[in-house]
Each structure stands twice: as structure tokens, then as C-alpha cells.
Amino acid sequence: MASGFRFVFGLAAGLSVALTLSACGEHMPGDATGAKVLRSLLEKNGVDAKLVSFKKVQGREVKRENIDAYELMYEAEIQFPEGFEAKCADERERGKCAYLGLDDDRTFAKSEVHTSEGTLHFVKSEKGWMAEDNNAY
Predict the structure, then answer these.
(1) Rounded CA gap, 54 and 41, in Å?
(2) Cα-trace Rg, the chain
(3) What is the rounded CA–CA span in Å between residue 55 and residue 35?
(4) Taking 50 as the threshold, does the pLDDT of residue 86 lie above it?
(5) Of 31, 35, 58, 69, which residue is least crowded by CB atoms under 10 Å?
(6) Residue 11 dihedral angles phi and psi, to the nearest 5°
(7) SS3 of residue 68 by DSSP
(8) Among the ranges 57-61, 64-68, 93-97, which has the highest mean pLDDT value?
(9) For residues 110 and 97, what is the distance between their CA atoms, to the nearest angstrom?
């Protein structure tokens, strides 16, 4: 009887591990990944800012032909320790203004906190989810 119990217990444990590992392969970007990407993008775009909070509010898979993509919609609080002059009215390509959620020019005072809403884009690759900052997560 004890060996039957060990067999069933071992089978259940093995199945649990297998399901956990298979779920890891389908991992979608979440709060932690989004925060890393947004920090990286702001830094790469010359925005001296501190990410105070980041929250994924929605996400959706996008499948087109041979491409698996993911869009992560977020809300973030961004603080400008030294203030910041955002020149956004004439931004033509997706850049710092898109990540800050701004369409117009705006001046931020020292230590001001800005609430931003935006979308981060990811493409599935062999290395994981490639983000707009050209890093895999």
C-alpha cells in the first residue's frame, strides 16, 4: 500500500513540476518587466527620472502571420528629481514623449511626479520577449 501511495504522490509531483515548467514558457511580460523596460527607455532617451510606481493595467497578445507580439498597457508615476523640460509638440517618432504619455510641451518642476499612461510593445523571439529597448526578457 505504501509503495502505491509513493507512486501516486511521485506522479502528482512530476505532473505539477511539468505544468509549472510549461507555464514558464508562456510567461507574458508583467509589472516587473514593464518597469525595467520603461526605466531603460527613459534612460536611453535622456530623461533624468525616477520610476516611482509601475502597474500593468492590461495586456493583449497580437498574432500576425509569423510574429507573436504582446502589448502591455501601463500606468506609471515618474518623478523628475532635477525637473525636466519635455519638448513633445513636434515629436514625430515614438520616443520619450510617448513613454511619458505626453502630446504637448511641458515643464516639470524639481521633484514633481507625473502620472503617465502608455503602451509597451514586445515581440516573441528565441531569447524571450524582445522589448522596444532591444533587450530580451
Answers:
(1) 14
(2) 21
(3) 8
(4) yes
(5) 58
(6) -65, -45
(7) strand
(8) 57-61
(9) 18
